[in-house]
Specification:
This protein is of the alpha/beta class. It is built from eleven helices and eight strands. Strand 5, helix 4 and strand 6 form a beta-alpha-beta unit.
Length: 303
């Protein structure tokens, strides 16, 4: 695999600055990749991006607010009890939080505006898929097609994450952790939520975790992003308004956002296509990249 040349930059949007990477022929149809909770743009694998570029598309991946090289909301606190917010989340109700997924959808608008892109194929994973649903409903004219990967409508009474998965994702490496402690915790979390049929080697996962730590380590942003997910409330009204050609891709073994989440999205988005993958968890393992990108490319052709 040869990664295309990358054009890196920062974009002012919604009062913040967003780091992005842009690859492929600028004249080709654009694809915007929106990554999930606590994940930097690097969690879109290079092989994944290269497959879409090889398919004839311009591919843009970026860091959401509060993560990676994008703006951090230093000092902004999340008030209120976590358990109360999670209880309301299970009922599809919103909570008062520093920012919501609606704000993050506006971030996406600003990034496209900065790049001079009127409309794009939008692909969101996990939290990014939630942002993408709001974006596709609120800014329908900016969306050529929509791809939702292991995400949810967050509607009331969907099955919660497996306790081990949620614990692994939210676990702290301890007070004032060393680099090695942070990397070790990241490896543990990825192994818990990853694809059981396609496990990655400890060396590979550790190398990815080290790369991301060295690029940016900012746990305060992770707290605020989790508040955005749990505080926004149900997305069902937005999902039902989506009219773009949509494919929903979800792993049958996802312990974090259960398969019911993907089915809920597919049921809510009229005319969408659901593609469930055996043995896939909450990650994008290398052996599944051809299948996942192949489904996305089929959907792109509809827009």
């Amino acid at each position: 695999m040869t990664l295309p040349d990358i054009r890196r930059g920062t974009a002012p949007a919604n009062g913040l600055e967003f780091a992005y990477e842009d690859m492929g022929d600028p004249g080709n149809p654009p694809v915007l990749l929106i990554m999930g909770f606590s994940a930097q743009l690097t969690l879109w694998p290079d092989e994944f991006c290269a497959a879409l570029v090889d398919g004839g598309y311009r591919v843009i991946r970026f860091d959401n607010r509060d993560i990676g090289l994008s703006s951090k909301l230093d000092g902004v606190r999340v008030d209120g009890a976590l358990w109360r917010r999670l209880a309301k989340f299970q009922l599809g109700r919103a909570s008062s939080v520093p920012y919501t997924l609606h704000d993050m959808a506006k971030d996406t608008v600003g990034l496209l505006d900065h790049l001079g892109i009127d409309s794009a194929h939008i692909v969101g994973a996990s939290m990014g898929g939630m942002i993408a649903q709001i974006f596709a409903a609120e800014y329908a004219d900016r969306v050529r097609t929509l791809g939702i990967v292991f995400s949810s409508t967050n509607q009331p009474l969907l099955p919660p994450p497996a306790p081990a998965a949620l614990k692994a994702l939210l676990a702290s490496p301890g007070a004032n952790p060393t680099r090695d402690q942070v990397i070790a915790q990241s490896v543990r979390a990825r192994k818990v939520i990853g694809s059981p049929r396609y496990p990655e080697s400890d060396d590979l996962v550790s190398a990815d975790a080290a790369r991301d730590y060295d690029r940016s380590y900012y746990p305060a942003g992770v707290v605020r992003q989790f508040a955005a997910v749990s505080g926004t409330g149900s997305l069902l009204d937005y999902s039902r308004r989506i009219g773009s050609p949509t494919v929903v891709i979800h792993g049958k073994e996802d312990p974090l956002i259960r398969p019911a989440g993907g089915r809920a999205v597919a049921k809510a988005v009229k005319g969408s296509r659901l593609h469930m993958i055996d043995g896939m968890g909450h990650d994008l393992p290398a052996p599944l990249i051809p299948e996942i990108t192949g489904e996305l490319l089929k959907n792109f052709a509809l827009g």
